[in-house]
C-alpha cells in the first residue's frame, strides 16, 4: 500500500488537532475511512448516508477528486490528499 500525505485545513484541522499526517491506503475512499476511524466523529462531518457531504472539498495532488474518479481514485506513493471546508468570499 502506498503511503499518502493527508493535509487538513480550517475546521478539519481544528477537529483533528493536526495539520497533516501520513497513512497507507490504495484509494481515496480507503484513506477517508481510515482517518474517520482515527478521529471519531469526523465521519459525521465528512459523510451523510455514506456519501461525501456536498460542502467538503477533497483534492488529490491539487485536483478536485470529483473531476476524476472521485473516492475511487487509485493512489500512488507520495501523493497528497487535502481536505478543505467550503470556501467563500466576496
TrEMBL record:
It comes from the Archaea. NCBIfam families: moaD_arch, SAMP1. This is Molybdopterin synthase subunit MoaD. It comes from Candidatus Methanoperedens nitratireducens.
Amino acid at each position: 500500500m502506498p503511503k499518502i500525505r493527508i493535509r487538513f485545513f480550517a475546521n478539519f484541522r481544528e477537529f483533528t488537532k493536526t495539520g497533516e499526517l501520513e497513512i497507507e491506503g490504495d484509494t481515496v475512499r480507503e484513506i477517508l475511512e481510515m482517518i474517520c476511524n482515527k478521529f471519531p466523529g469526523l465521519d459525521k462531518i465528512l459523510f451523510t448516508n455514506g456519501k461525501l457531504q456536498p460542502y467538503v472539498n477533497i483534492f488529490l495532488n491539487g485536483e478536485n477528486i470529483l473531476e476524476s474518479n472521485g473516492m475511487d481514485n487509485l493512489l500512488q506513493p507520495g501523493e497528497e490528499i487535502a481536505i478543505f471546508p467550503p470556501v467563500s468570499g466576496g
